[in-house]
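Bench notes, afternoon.
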Amino acid sequence: MLAKTQDNEEIIERVAALDIGKAELVCCVRVPDEDHRGRRLQEVESYSTMTRSLLGMADRLACLGVRRVVMEATSDYWKPVFYLLEAAGFETWLVNAKDVKHLPGRPKTDKLDCIWLCKVAERQMIRPSFVPPPEFRRLRDLTRYRADLVAARTAEKNRVEKLLEDAQIKLSVVVSDIFGVSGRDMLAALVAGERSPTVLAQLARRTMRRKITVLEEAFTGYFTDHHAFLLGRMLARVDAISGDIAGLDARIEEQIAPFVATVARLDEVPGINLAAAHAILAETGLDMARFPTAGHLVSWAKYAPGVKESAGKKKGKNSTGHGNPYLARVLGNAAAATARTDTFLGERYRRIARRRGAKKANVAVGRSILVIIWHLLSDPDARFHDLGSGFYAARIDPERRRRNHIRQLEALGYNVTLEPAA
């Protein structure tokens, strides 16, 4: 039985494609031949990536009546070209280079790449990648830089701990966070020249004072002036990065102000705090029309297993692939935080982890969080409602136990008929 499909064979009449490099780009334009019906005219030109040259190219495309311009995502070189053409009113498409592969044995040059991309684009054989609108691009720059600074600060803190180990100072064995209030006082005293374990241990505050005896043992080591010099530079670096992060947080708060209600609704989801909500909005945007279903968003984020089948057999390990690393980092941290909560998602994580391990549980719960996010962003009136950690026991476990008991009795040779109790 023949079934209808949604394939559209219509050729885009006027289209341009760009092969972008750092210093120059190649532009291929294909338009109808007005003198010969059914034929196409093609123009291939090289342009500098300087602003004046790009403005000249935009004028040329406008004179030819081109509306859609397609380009590959080449490093960060596509961004200024994309933004300039977008501001000029063109329908700009950013496409994945993997979707525009050459046929085997075909020569590869910038000019041929550009022509091939233009021919594929005019036949609508490629799809545009998601590029957020300008306000979310600015927010994305801030949240991504913040994530990089947090990683740099964490690396610097790890260097501090290694330096203390080199000096036989076992502070991290006794204190869970050596950069807490007490820990920072002790580290500052070491930099200032204090070497007495008794004096250093007395800097402990509150509940940590119960560990003074152990702290004295931890500070008995070989901390020298060389270690003090390095520790002072590392602590200054940590403080400087913390100051930069605070400045970014203030700027992010200004940028996110129009969407504060959406941030509050995302903050209700277990595992998502304000910083995570800011990062999620920056990566996905607010308009879910780009993702018709939650499955589209999950697939774009590479949180759905890939499908690879040949001769009726599924191959590979159904890995999800590599998606947006910044979004994946936020979802992974949110899933790990959820695992420690008494919620539906927390119980889901623990059930999957028992059967398939923590890594698969993290991805599965991250996918669930992403589906929740899609529903919250798709419906401005939607609010998160937790089903509770007892959902599985109340809804699924009784049914599963009933089936297991029936199978066990049938295996013993009984015919089982169940009647509900009065």
